[in-house]
Amino acid sequence: MGVLSPELLEVAEAIKARYPTGRERSAVMPLLYLVQSVEGSLTREGLREVAELLGRTTAEVEAVATFYTMLRTRRTGIHVVAVCTNLSCALRGANAVFEAAHEAAGIAHGEETSEDGLITVHEEECLGACDAAPVVQLDFANHDRVDPERMHELVAAVLAGEIPAPSRGTAPNDFKHASRILAGVEESS
Amino acid sequence: MSEPVTRVLTANWDDPSVFGIDGYMAKGGYEGLRRAIAMTPSQLIDLVKVSGLRGRGGAGFPTGVKWSFVPQDTGKPTYVVANFDESEPGTFNNREIVEREPHRFLEGMAIAAYAVGSHTAFVYCRGEFLWPGQVLDAAIREAYAKGVFGDSMLGGGYALEVVLHRGAGAYICGEETALLSSLEGFRGQPRLRPPFPAVEGLYESPTLINNVETLATIPAILTNGAEWFSKIGPAKSPGTKIFSVSGKVERPGNYEVPMGTSLRTLLEEHAGGMLGGRRLKAWTPGGSSTPMLTDEHLDVALDFESVAAAGSLLGTGAIIVMDETDCIVEATRRLVQFYAHESCGKCTPCREGTWWVSRVLSRIELGYGRPEDLPLLDDLGRNILFKAFCALADGAVSPIQSSLKFFRDEYVQHIEERGCPFTGRGPGVEGAAEPEGVGVGA
Fold first, then answer.
1. In this complex, is the C-beta atom of A141 within 8 Å of any C-beta atom belonging to chain B?
2. Where are the alpha helices (DSSP H) in B160-276?
3. Interchain CB contact of B386 with A (< 8 Å)
4. Any domain includes A60
5. Is residue A1 part of a domain?
6. Which residue range(s) make up the domain with A183?
7. Which domain holds residue B201?
8. pTM of the prediction?
9. Which of A171, B46, B232, B332 has its CA 20 to 30 A from that of A146?
10. Pick from A33, A71, A184: CB nearest B164
11. Number of domains in chain A
12. Strand locations in chain A, DSSP E?
């Protein structure tokens, strides 16, 4: 069995059709997001399937997948907590927030994902929301002006199975759901 | 009695109704596009040239001139690509434009497409902008439903298809040739110019790439006139601009003011002054890749020429403010860490240089710096600047060279006292032994 169900293979064809005929390679990123929305990260099998869909080699697809931080070829939690520690956020205390995220999720230094596979903590570069520093994204939904205490609350909520309301917009259910939105599937249906 | 013009792009931001197309149209939205399609493309390009608008994405190139570079006789399709990959640290106005009034940007993009004869426009939306991307997707569908996009633009017969494409987390994709590589389905690495994208861009076809703020500025030029726009602010950098102010100020945020406004005015009249009333130490006028300035530059007019004359760059107008309690070595280290992380790896001065500088800055900050590190940093900076393939590496050199220029004493202090005077870390401060491995960098 492949990664994409027959239904999702149809979705994949619709994604390819967004781009001009003969330029379907442009669909590699949304297709990788689509595979990621099923697998929770990108496996060899998923990469191979995207390659087949595009008539490319797995190496060509892997080259793209490994270039971008939001396409994850490593073990990834059900939820991804991204803490911006770039300058504007650091000036407002982001390093302590990053520490707090590790503590709250029980992740040791140098590790990315909790042992139970629930949470990945990612040191993020500037998220373009510096007016709200320090900024945290939970499955790519923004949380403004997060201090260490709030960071603990956010992680506790996630561990309790809740989805904390983001500062703007609606929150995805988890990293897979966020990947599905990024593939442009939620919206075009 | 006329108030000085200060808010054009952000005039409707307090009104939530402009989020949707009906509210936007009720406020006169898409009137600029209506006027544009009543003109010939060349008249339209001339109008934008006369306005004097310069690109807001960092380089400040005259927008009308850029539009005029797109050839019309190639037999290939022409593309418009809106650069919504906003990733320059400290920059956050594109995001708020889209989150508050997405149609102002989409209207500008439609006008640009008509001007250069493009029937397919792509919006390259930064991946991390999950919600802004959803806002745009909904807005694009509204514009189709209202007959703005699709077969016949506002009933005028001009066809325009608009495709939303999401990035996946790479600062380099804001560089326009890297953006094109990414959009074509490759790693986001920059390409050699020439050929310039105007002639051979997306899919080897003529392509216009504009920043979101640039495009959002266009509709008001159509409705109010090029002359009106050209008379706001300094003659060579006309118009209003949204400055993103962050860091140690009381009210960080996006503030739209005429070009040429000083940081002093932005601080006093908009951003609420320095956080806690502390003293300004250093600031960037245009994001992390523009050289830092100091409190001596509080009255520099923030326009392309004046900031360049002061030794920095206007960039994206992203002002990151640091105060007297902030360590410049640590700030520089963090910024260089960013460039080391975001280097696409294509060429050596950037890939290796940013990594080594980051190691050297780490050991200085941690209290293991050596006297020869400062000439070493000078040397590394010289060997990166203008020696790499694209401007990412030059951006990395900005904080290095400017911090050494204005705050060399602070580096010396870190090295002599073997520690950071701000954090109290370091063997000279704590009497700790040198940890293994720090000798070659942390």
1. yes
2. 176-183, 197-200, 212-224, 226-230, 263-265
3. no
4. yes
5. no
6. 6-72+178-188
7. 16-230
8. 0.96
9. B332
10. A184
11. 2
12. 79-84, 119-124, 136-138, 141-143
